[in-house]
Structure formats: C-alpha cells, structure tokens
Write a structure and sequence with these properties.
Two copies of one chain form a homodimer. In chain A, about 45% of the residues lie in helices and about 15% in strands. Chain A has about 210 residues and is α/β, with parallel strands linked by helices. In chain A, helix 6 links the parallel strand 5 and strand 6 (about 135-140). The radius of gyration of chain A is 16 Å and the shape is globular. Chain A starts with a strand and ends with a helix. The interface of A and B includes residues 94, 105, 108 and 211 of A.
Chain lengths: ~210, ~210
C-alpha cells in the first residue's frame, strides 16, 4: 500500500471536491491511498502566468509538509506543472505535475496529438514534450478558468471534434479540471480516438516512480 | 480484474521464463492477470531489421488469437514496437509495444534522456519520440542479443554510468531483456537518476488504455 499526496492548485470549500482527484487516483490504483490539500486564497485556480507565479511558493510549502508526513510521492494536480522544477531539487520523494505525464502518455500512443486546454496556448510542458507533434490546439469556447468547464460540456465536445478533424490521433487534456468533471469518457464517446485524462496520467507516472524504487 | 496478453518476441523453452514479463506486470498492477505466449522459431529474439521482419507476422497471429480469447489489452514485449502499426488497425482492443511507452515515460520525467539498448542505434520508437532529447545512446560492451544481458551486468552498469556522465537526467532501457534480468534497480543503485524499465512502462501504458475505457 502506498500513499500519494495530491496538491490541489485551487482553493476549494467543499471537502468532496478537494478529494475528487485523489478519488480518481484511488479508483485506478487499488493499492494507493491519497491525501489531498488545497493551496490557499486562489479560488479560481491557475489560469495564467500571474496566477501560476502566486501559486508556486504555496505549492512548495504544501509539498514539504506532505513529505514530512511520510507520503511516498506527490502529484501537483495541474497541467502546467507549477513548482515541479523546484520540488525535484528540494524533495527526496518523487513528485510530478500532470502536464508532462499527459503529454508523454499521449505521445506513447501517437505522434499526432491534439491538445485541449483552457489557456490561450498549450501549457509549457505540452509545448516542451510534444513540440511539432501537436497537430492542433483548441480551447473550448466560453471557458476561461477551470470553474467554467462543468457548464460548457457541449463546447468541450465540439472543440475535441475539431481536434479530430485536424488530424489528431489522440487527445491530451491540458487542464486537470477536465478530470474533475470526468470529461475524458464524455469526449471519447464522441470521437474515435483515445483521450488522455491528466489526473490519471499523473497517477500512473508517479506510481511508476514509486514502485520502481521497491 | 483485467487480463493482459503478453507477446514474447523470443522463443523460450522454460515456462518460468515465458511468464517473467507477465509476472512483472502482475506485481505492479495487483488487479491484472496476464497470459503470455512466445513467437515460434526465434530463439535469439529480435536484434536487427531482419529478425524483426521475420517476427511481425507471428506477432500479428498471436495477437489475434489473444483478442479472440477475450484479453482486455495486449503488450508486445519488445522495445522496437514490432507490428504495433498493423495491430492498431486490425484489433479492437488496445495494444502497445514497450518502445514508445518507455521513451515517453522517460520524457515525462526529463527531456535529457540517456538511452541504453542492444542495437547499434536507438530503436526507432525512441528516435521518433525523443529525437534530440536523446542526450546519449549506449550499448553495453559484449552484448549482441537479449540473451547476452544476464552475463554482462558490470558492462551494463558501466554503460549506464557513461549516460549519466553525458548529462542524462533519466535512463530509458531500450530492450525488454533488461526487464527479464531486473536491470533497472541494479542500475538505479549505481547512478543518481531514475531508470525506466520497459515492461513496467508498457504495463502502465496499456493499463491506462484499459481503465480509461471503463
């Protein structure tokens, strides 16, 4: 049995929402328990450079607390991988964001990747990992922050279809808010290509890092 | 509980050797059972273009048999991903080799990847996924086929150290024979960077493909 710390990069009031990503991890990895905590004072999460910059010291602080509590690995549940560079140097346990794992898992399936995100451009980890293997990028119309995803399901599905039409052979979801609303299977039911859920991608990546040490 | 078919691309006599990769998969994924079979008449496995070409129709035949038996997904346990292009078109269930998953999982960790293989150059999936993110490629001295790995542990470790010295921040093992001899932890004990085991990488990738459908 392993314990994975989940850092939520959005301030959430409801305990059931706080645990949501952890529950996804526990569902796909039956020998894992999760421990989730939110950063403070960011009710809209991370959605641009400034909100990311503000979040990083809070993420680092939470990660150190979690390491102190004895978790086996940490997921910073965000597709922008905020603070990962710093944490890789400062922690002894494995740590991952959701960005590089999602981009990489897409690339494990095909080198024609469609990226679906909430920012103007693909988040940096997607650009770095995929480069010109990104065949198209889309942002659902009507979505600015992760909080807008739940009420824009149709717009999300239309954006995914545009990625498929553009030649994508796999879709990488570039915001963990898509995991919160369980968008991957909804999208997969409307396209003929696999869809990568960012929290699941982060889960299997950190799980590999943990079990490969044992 | 899921069942994963494991195609061994080498003809093995001993039943315990046949099951070896399946056992690795079952160890890291407690809710998975595996079903392993070898291709016929290739006691040295795949180690160059000709031996790969000979193997592909045998791999396709075995994969179709396994799909008929009702497995949930298939791993072709080889870092060259032989036959995967064909199988992706012809099967209804997910299928993966070990090449793209290993290269991609390395890239999830860092874009400075050292590749350790048994062929003259990195196998094609590694070149395609990583391109110039391969900081160095090494082949252990004394190793020609996968069968030579077990008796060349020191040479393998020396090659891994050369990759680390060349600036690699993660090592991708580019032959599933390294998994057979459990080389990843042996190497990891001698370097300060993570090492990606190809059978484990294939396991978590196919597992994602299976659970994300449920």
């Amino acid at each position: 049995m392993f314990t994975i710390g989940i850092i939520r990069v959005i301030t959430l009031e409801s305990e059931s929402l706080v645990k949501k990503h952890g529950e996804i991890v526990e569902r796909i990895l039956p020998n894992v328990k999760t421990y989730s905590k939110c950063i403070e004072d960011q009710p809209e999460g991370i959605y641009d450079e400034e909100s990311e910059k503000k979040a990083i010291p809070k993420i680092v602080k939470l990660a150190k607390e979690m390491e102190g509590l004895g978790v086996n690995g940490i997921i910073v549940s965000c597709a922008g991988d905020p603070g990962i560079d710093v944490l890789e140097k400062e922690l002894k346990i494995p740590v991952t964001g959701a960005g590089r794992p999602t981009a990489s898992l897409a690339l494990a399936i095909s080198d024609k990747v469609g990226v679906l995100g909430i920012t103007k451009e693909p988040p940096k980890p997607f650009k770095e990992v995929l480069r010109d293997y990104i065949v198209a990028y889309e942002k659902p119309i009507g979505v600015k922050t992760t909080l807008d995803l739940a009420k824009n399901i149709d717009s999300i599905i239309r954006a995914a279809k545009r990625l498929e039409s553009a030649g994508a052979k796999v879709i990488a979801l570039a915001c963990t808010g898509f995991s919160t609303i369980n968008a991957a299977p909804l999208i997969a039911n409307n396209v003929n290509i696999p869809v990568i859920d960012p929290v699941m991608a982060a889960a299997i990546t950190i799980y590999y890092r943990i079990v490969s040490r044992t």
